[in-house]
């Protein structure tokens, strides 16, 4: 049985320890038409721009579709309206929608790679970002756009994809994590003060950041990165839109 070292409320969060996990067994702690709480879950609840997972629960020959996940005092699975809901105490087989999760992992890792390249080559901090499956945007504090910037960034990103750098995930005590140079690549520190263990995502040799999302195991698994557009968002902020492809 897979166990988790991370938890939210009453739910052990399995996806933060094993990002490849797509199906597992759990027990329903609480259930109703608007939320289901499990003792163990690998459904990513969203955060840091990464949308929440979709999936299903299977129980006693019945299927409950999961339309999303949210954090409150507990980790709440949101059932599709009208689907039957398993009673508290029921054992369920859970499955994350693999195509969606994998696409989001590739995209999230692609954003970290982009961030690492732009920070390394231009010294710019991130001011915002968002992602969907295989497309994303990231905003940077970049006062002047150098000639050939768009193509140079795209080429540099794809060199890092081909380099097949490992992407490693660890957790460190807060004080130790913040001793790492440039661990926060955003213009403001988004790690809440109550977080005592900081999760670190390291694209080895390129980018090390505090991050709570899910990622692929190496840069080659991201796929090709295209910088589709560079937009001026005012006050020296530039928005880079990227697309991921096979």
TrEMBL record:
The keyword Translocase belongs to this UniProt entry's keyword annotation: no
Pfam families found in the cross-reference section: tRNA_SAD (PF07973)
Record has Lyase as a keyword: no
Compartment(s) where it occurs, according to its Swiss-Prot or TrEMBL record: Cytoplasm
Organism: Actinomadura rugatobispora
Lineage, opening ranks: Bacteria, Bacillati, Actinomycetota, Actinomycetes, Streptosporangiales
Main location: cytoplasm
Coiled coil spans: none
Residues annotated as domain Alanyl-transfer RNA synthetases family profile: 1-246
Domain of life: Bacteria
InterPro entries from the UniProt entry: Ala-tRNA-synth_IIc_core, Alanyl-tRNA_Editing_Enzymes, Thr/Ala-tRNA-synth_IIc_edit, Transl_B-barrel_sf, tRNA_SAD
Cofactor: Zn(2+)
Alphabetical list of SMART domains matching this protein: tRNA_SAD
Record keywords, A-Z: Metal-binding, Zinc
Protein name in the entry: Alanyl-tRNA editing protein
């Amino acid at each position: 049985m897979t166990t988790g070292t991370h938890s939210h409320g009453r739910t052990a969060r399995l996806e933060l320890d094993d990002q490849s996990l797509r199906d597992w067994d759990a027990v329903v702690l609480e259930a109703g038409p608007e939320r289901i709480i499990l003792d163990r879950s690998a459904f990513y609840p969203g955060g840091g721009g990464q949308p929440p997972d979709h999936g299903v629960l299977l129980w006693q020959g019945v299927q409950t579709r999961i339309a999303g996940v949210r954090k409150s005092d507990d980790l709440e699975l949101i059932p599709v309206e009208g689907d039957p809901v398993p009673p508290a105490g029921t054992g369920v087989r859970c499955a994350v929608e693999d195509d969606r999760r994998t696409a989001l992992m590739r995209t999230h890792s692609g954003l970290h790679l982009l961030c690492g390249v732009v920070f390394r080559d231009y010294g710019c901090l991130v001011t915002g970002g968002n992602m969907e499956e295989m497309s994303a945007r990231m905003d940077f504090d970049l006062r002047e756009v150098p000639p050939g910037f768009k193509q140079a960034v795209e080429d540099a990103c794809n060199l890092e994809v081909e380099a097949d750098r490992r992407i490693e995930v660890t957790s460190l005590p807060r004080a130790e994590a913040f001793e790492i140079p440039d661990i926060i690549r955003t213009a403001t520190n988004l790690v809440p003060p109550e977080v005592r263990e900081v999760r670190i995502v390291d694209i080895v040799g390129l980018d090390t950041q505090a991050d709570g999302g899910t990622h692929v195991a190496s840069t080659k698994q991201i796929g090709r990165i295209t910088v589709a557009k560079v937009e001026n968002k005012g006050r020296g902020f530039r928005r880079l839109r990227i697309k991921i492809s096979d």
